[in-house]
Amino acid sequence: MRILLIYPYEPGTMMGGEFSFRLPPLGIMQIAGCTPDGHEVVLVDENVEPVDLEADADLVGFSVTTPNAHRTYAMARRFRERGIPVVFGGVHPTMMPEEAAEQSDAIVFGEGDRIWPQVVRDVEAGRLEREYRGPRNHTLAGLPRPRRDLIENKGYSPVHFVETTRGCPHACEFCSVTTFWGGRYRSRPLEEVMEELRSLKPLTEKRLALKNCVFFVDDNIGSDPEYAARLFEAITPLGLYWVGQASVEFSEDPGLLRLAARSGCRGLLVGLESVTPENLALCRKMESAERYREAIDRFHEAGIGVEGSFIVGFDHDQEKVFDAIHSFTINAAVDSVYLSILTPYPGTRLHRRMEREGRLLSRDWRRYDTSHVVFQPDRLSPARLERGYIDLYRRAFSGWSIARRLTGASLRRLMFFLPMNFGFRRAIYSCDPRRFGHECEVRT
Fold first, then answer.
1. Which residues of the chain does CATH 3.40.50.280 include?
2. Which of 188, 285, 292, 374 could lock onto 362 through a cystine, CB 3.0 to 4.6 A?
């Protein structure tokens, strides 16, 4: 069979089509790697290339997120009209199965890598079922490698995405990770991770200062300190440059920090979320911004940069929140900044609470992209929250702010974060804020 796997474009965000860093779609590459032998697989990421709706295919699979659901449904109708079976997988169909079922021939619930081969066999045999459920909390041993060959020469940034763990026990109100991936950390066998890392092809893209960079996509690379230590020790001889995601508590383990830095870590995306004490308590984070500053200092002392991730729109946020976050990023010398508007994604406790309180303003999934306000904030108007978010992003990546945040940074950090900052700046300053609007009428 000829199998077409599609990752649809997510329009509208501040980090949309103008974003300089085109990142490979690891999830759908993993599904491609799980496809049984004997089939032709074509992977199309609409973020870097158009989708041919008249393409020949015996099966079409879509990786569906909430903001790309509308686009997915439109494309799926075209393929189904041609008699081609369409299968949806990903977070959105798992959280909104009744809606997704109306637009597809089959849905894969949860993690698809173990059940996808059965889907392919059933299509081949002409007995496709309506629902497939991946096993919950399954072992990560023996996962096929992602089909990186399917994205070669497509203009992606020079970074390899690699997964070592899944799951998270924290169950933050606004996050769907625990619901989708499970409430405990699971780790891949270290020897399998090392085999994958050794197999990675050198990258020749010249847009970044660091070549052959690896991004560990784990939600928290330090979730299991013992496993993380063994991983860092094992990859040290490879001479990698790598980045990842971690909790702020990672900074409190000096030994693990040293191992991470020695193994090639150049930076970590750290979920700081807020600088307001009441919001930090809601998120079960450190109790003060001052402790955040101390944590960032520890990362910097180890030679590791910090991309601070912040969310605006919590119930305790008032007019002063935008200035407070901006001042913190300057004073704490945060190496880069990632901003989101609080978004009540389907399937999260936040969505259920907002729905219960009658605060959802939109069910247009295209607006659920962390750049639009889709709920009634408690202490700000929707228009003010959205405008404040856009203004804060532009302030964060002004030339003055970049210079202030990176003044005194080591060459080790500058090599990675200076091009990142200017990549963000290019995307943000080329974006027309008018396309966001500020209308938040109820849509059903």
1. 2-128
2. 374
